[in-house]
Amino acid sequence: MKWRGRRGSGNIEDRRSSGGARIGGLGAGGVLIVLAIGYFFNIDVSPLLNGGSQGSSAPLSQRDEEWGQFVSVVLADTEEIWADTLPAQAQRQYVDPSLVLFRGAVQSACGGASSAMGPFYCPGDQKIYLDTDFFDMMAERMGAGGDFAAAYVVAHEVGHHVQNLTGVLGAVNRARQQQSETRANEISVRAELQADCYAGIWARRAQDRFGTLEEGDIDEALGAAHAVGDDVIQASAGTTPMPDSFTHGTAAQRQDWFIRGFRSGEMGQCDTFAVSEP
Fold first, then answer.
1. Which of 99, 213, 222, 272 is deepest in the core (most CB within 10 A)?
2. What 8-state DSSP symbol labels residue 136?
């Protein structure tokens, strides 16, 4: 990905050197999730399970600094693309989200979270939360390396912000509360796949405007989409994939919807809620 020497975003909040927020009250379901992620990714989650942990206050390494610069450029690209695309295609004004870089643990308007749970978007404060160590983990333990794989992750979370601005995310959260667990999971899958499709739109339009892509970049994004498929994660953890428990979609679904967005560049092609089978 061609990103060096380009404009960065002013909406980055870097907390990586200031320490993270304390986490508590995970609940039984949260504990199971943390244990599963810790097992699969070989992460020591004992501080979290023992009642909380503090983020590191160690100085940032050169690699940390470079990841921060990279994320800033990617976020700036999303700002420019969606500032044009959202009004033109959805008749909504785009409001830039903030992106919080943290290490270890963080507190958001949606509660506390650990980096072991991966990047996330919080509609309560319209912020994306990301531990850049996740990118190294993707490369080393998930076989999904490359700068455009990391860009896909950021663009996916920005996709959730777009859903929040259009009202989809709020509707999804309300609908999930009124359904059975299986049906709620299905709704969640459709929301995640739409965010993948929006990431594809960003990739297409960033290439058209900035000439961002280099050879192999789309393959890197597809590799990341495959690695975070529910079926792949469950199989890699040594369990039989259980479709009723999927919340993000299969590897094939995530790749398919990213490509739909990339090929079309149109939000109308990302309506995962209108198809019988996403």
1. 99
2. H
Kind and range of the H or E run holding 183: helix 181-210
CA distances from 200 to 44, 66, 120, 144, 278 (A): 34, 24, 18, 17, 16
Residues 139, 58 contacting (CB under 8 angstroms): no
Residue with tokens 């899958």: 189
**Residue 40 has what pLDDT?**
43
- For the stretch 169-190, pLDDT in tens is 999 999 999 999 999 999 999 9
Tell me the C-alpha distance between 137 and 132, whole Å: 9
| 143: pLDDT strictly greater than 70 | yes
Nearest of 120, 124, 121 to residue 134 by alpha carbon = 120
Residue 163 CB contacts under 8 Å (≥ 6 apart), including other chains: 169, 172, 191, 194, 195, 198
19 found inside a domain: yes
Q: Is 95 within a domain?
A: yes
The Cβ-side half-sphere exposure at 35, using a 13 Å CA radius, reads 9
In this model, does residue 19 exceed pLDDT 70?
Answer: no
pTM (two decimals): 0.86
Question: Alpha carbon of 10 to those of 14, 98, 234: distances in Å?
Answer: 11, 9, 37
How many whole angstroms separate alpha carbon 27 and alpha carbon 51? 11
Domain carrying residue 94: 12-270
- Is residue 275 one of the residues assigned to a domain? no
Locate 242 and state its tokens.
């259980």
Q: Which residues have C-beta within 8 Å of that of residue 154, sequence separation ≥ 6?
A: 71, 74, 75, 78, 99, 119, 128, 130
How many domains does the chain divide into? 1
User: Which of helix, strand or coil describes residue 146?
Assistant: coil
